[in-house]
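Morning, I've got a small favour to ask if you have a moment. Here's the protein in full, and shout if anything looks odd to you:
***
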Amino acid sequence: MRSAALYGALGSLVLTALAAAPAPAHGSGQAPPGGRAEAHGVELAARQAAAKGIRFGACPASEQLPAPVQCGIVSVPLDYARPDGKHIGLTVSRARSLGTRSQRQGALVYNPGGPGGSGMFFPLLTAVKQWQSTARAYDFVGYAPRGVGRSAPLSCADPARFTKAPSQAEEHPTAAFKRQRLAEARAYAQGCARRAGQDLPHYNSLNNARDLDVLRAALGEKKLNYMGASYGTYFGALYATLFPGHARRMVFDSVVDPTRSKIWYDSNLTQSAAFERRWGDWRRWVAKHDAVYHLGRTPQQVAAAYERARQRLARRAAGGKVGPGELHSAFLQVGYSDSHWARSADALSAYLRGDDRALRTLATPDPAAARASENSNAVYTAVECNDAPWPRSWSVWDRDNTRLARRAPFETWQNAWMNLPCAFWSAHQQRALDVGAAPRALPPTLLLAAERDAATPYEGAVELHRRLPGSSLVTERGSGTHGIAYGPNACVNRHVEKYLLTGAVPGRHAYCGPRQEPVATTGAKATAGTVG
């Protein structure tokens, strides 16, 4: 599952004993990871990009990025094994550093996750207080990865049909419902193949990492400064493996487990189990504030209240658009961020009392976002399906998800339906790269993780920490918000800022206390996502 909560703001996965040798550095006499032809293609494309640079100017109105943010295009090969063949353009955004020339340390490139997320908004964060010390040292550079937005956009279905509402969501689906979703998954996979054609296999994580090196060169940077969140940590780790000598500062926030055998089928099962734990965190918090929300004094009673709402919406959609599927999508956000807790509880409480206005505001799909939503899902599907083999037998999916849903019903089947097109994928599926950078080439990296993160469970950060020599892991104890850099935790922020400004890491491990729990609020304050 993608980490959708990070797309519009800052703030799929368990420790294994896989004993994998670090990938050899280029020039070691062994084949470079990812293939010799592709390695040559990246070198050629990077040289060409460095010579050409990026012509920045005013951003198109569609990007909604006002001055002084500027936009440009960087050209990358569709297929790095054929660098003289078809090229595609990736959209790039930039805000110049706020400091003096002597303070400037280069460009900081950001990716918010996904697959399917765009970082084009990133330069806007130069105006946010927590980021301003960092913004004095770096140009803030965002971009839309291949397939996303205006970067050779992918589509697998008609956006209006893809986002049609209301929709159903069954925690323990019937045989008939499963047959329906199987047919939809097969049709979606066929739509991806038909619309993208021969280009489809080239939308994958290895190419995202290669694109990052071409972008580095186009920006005129000898070394890459990079900050990736969620899925952005995975292809950032691929970058560290492929190009350890090109890295300068790398921050990995909310870390994907890079274990080869977990990409991506097993990681999604692990993620679904973790969402059940986080869903329990929210229910316990709501029960503690029963005097405010009146949804029950125990987590079980809160779960029963949610189930009453789900059943009522199955009979009659709120506003004709919010059914069980839309309810689930909206309440999944409580697993991503504490900032959604009060608003979600308030909307559920009001709906059960007969007022559906807050729930409709929270969960009704925005028709204006249909195209972007379908595009994001198409990229997500293409990248995850292309990255690694998936089970082709429906009996495997049915067995694994039925078993998991007995103890983790909230997210299991919805996650399965999202990924099921990979069972019918016609494009070539790669074998995931074994992540691990050459020890002498990679500088210290900074990893950030919350102990109760559901989207990228904590064990993934421990595993990447093991694989990247010299890395430092900063842990936010007792918290579960996904994406913790430059949020409300001053301890986390001090470690990130010090690293980006000086390169210093806080030893192998550092621990920060939990962020404050959200304040139980209602009405306009709840809608604003008040956090204590």
